[in-house]
Design goal:
With 383 residues, the protein is an alpha+beta fold. It has eight helices and 18 strands. It is 27% helix and 32% strand. The strands form three sheets. Strands 5-6-7-8-9-10-13-17-16 form a nine-stranded mixed β-sheet. It has a five-stranded antiparallel β-sheet with strand order 11-12-18-14-15, with no helix packed on it. Strands 1-2-3-4 form a four-stranded antiparallel β-sheet, covered by helices on one side. A hairpin with a 5-residue loop joins strand 16 and strand 17. The longest helix has 27 residues. It is globular and about 75 Å long.
């Protein structure tokens, strides 16, 4: 028989959820008040005038206006987003399209823009090509306002917006005075673990930028241009994130070097093929870092697996906390195959399904082996 008190609690909870939904729906249905709509219109119009005047004063030309967006923010408790007083103006001059972020609450020439993004990126590429001594395949660069310039703009638009005019040829000065996130890709199959001996000036440069200027940088060497196109992620520097999950691209990346504050990480990937599968890990020692075998371990009946076994039992002996990634060919096992992992930890055996994904070209299932910091880990494919 059901517990009446439990039923009552559930009923009260459902009523509360329904009430919150109805109130939210009512507020959204009503939308902004007449006064707020008038305020939004006024901000938009003043922002339009300010954006044009700002560009004329800063660059000496009058741009065309493609659109004006009122900047809005919203906290968890706000039923509707609220205007923070600024606008994002979409402008055009000749073939150049750019944006201006400026207040729309009163007349002002204090704004910021991304008009010079193209020239900054061109000079950044030339600067880094000269620094490393080869031509980059791809460059990603995040930059923003120098925090020491004065009053902060709202955070709704930050990346690539500058209030000062960028002077051509001053990229190194800009680098020293702005916090940047940088990703530099090549397809030269390079081993960055040797750079401390072979190119110490480059390593020293990025160490200094990270330590003194707050730069976050990652250099990635892909095995070939084809491997770059197959790579699963190309956003390792976006938002300051450096090497999160980069080991899952070990099939395509030879090595990488990441620099952030006082930390640096330099790794190269080792690939081992076994029984049609590819095993990837950080290359930390001479020879094979992994010992791989098949059907030498017993798959335990712990009631955790689903489906029918589709492969033998593979075992991997790994060293330390070295992450291990396995690439399982979909041509053999299909794209929907399930992979279960088994290992002994904390005095008992554990089994669980790996939440895998496919490579970009759908040729492999990507499996990350978790488990003890060192020792044997087993896995098996099911269908």
């Amino acid at each position: 028989m059901a517990d009446g008190r439990g039923y009552s609690r559930k009923r009260r909870f459902l009523i509360w959820v329904l009430a919150v939904f109805l109130v939210s729906a009512f507020l959204y249905g009503c939308g902004y008040s007449k006064e707020e709509k008038m305020r939004l219109k006024a901000i938009k119009e003043q922002g339009r005038e300010n954006a044009v005047s700002y560009v004329k004063a800063k660059y000496g030309f009058t741009p065309e206006i493609s659109g004006i967006e009122v900047c809005k923010e919203r906290n968890d408790a706000d039923p509707l987003p609220w205007a923070n007083g600024y606008v994002l103006a979409f402008l055009k001059y000749g073939d150049e399209e750019f944006q201006v972020h400026i207040s729309g609450e009163e007349p002002t020439l204090e704004g910021r823009d991304d008009y010079q993004y193209g020239i900054i990126m061109d000079e950044a590429r030339a600067y880094f090509n000269d620094l490393v001594g080869y031509e980059l395949y791809d460059l990603y660069l995040e930059y923003g306002e120098n925090p020491n310039l004065g009053p902060e703009f709202p955070e709704c638009h930050e990346d690539y917006f500058l209030r000062d005019v960028y002077v051509s040829g001053s990229f190194e000065q800009m680098l020293c005075h702005s916090s940047m996130n940088i990703r530099m890709d090549d397809c030269e199959n390079q081993d960055f673990t040797k750079w401390k001996e072979e190119k110490p000036e480059v390593v020293d440069f990025f160490q200094k930028c990270a330590r003194e200027y707050g730069t976050k940088a990652i250099l990635i060497s892909y095995r070939s241009p084809e491997d770059y196109q197959k790579g699963y992620e190309h956003n390792y520097a976006r938002g300051g994130i450096l090497d999160f999950d980069i080991e899952e691209d070990g099939l395509y990346i030879r090595s990488y070097a990441a620099f952030e504050e006082s930390e640096e990480t330099i790794n190269r990937f080792e690939l081992q093929e076994f029984d049609g599968l590819v095993f990837s890990c950080f290359d930390k020692s001479e020879g094979a870092d992994l010992v791989v075998s098949k059907d030498e371990a017993e798959w335990l009946d712990l009631g955790e697996t689903k489906g029918e076994p589709f492969s033998g039992v593979y075992s991997v002996e790994k060293q330390g906390r070295n992450p291990v990634v396995i690439y399982i060919p979909t041509e053999v096992y299909g794209r929907g195959a399930k992979v279960f992992i088994q290992h002994f930890y904390d005095d008992r055996w554990r089994q669980y399904e790996d939440y895998n994904h496919l490579t970009r070209d759908k040729r492999y299932i990507v499996v990350s082996l978790l488990g003890p910091s060192a020792g044997r880990v087993d896995f098996r494919v099911f269908r």
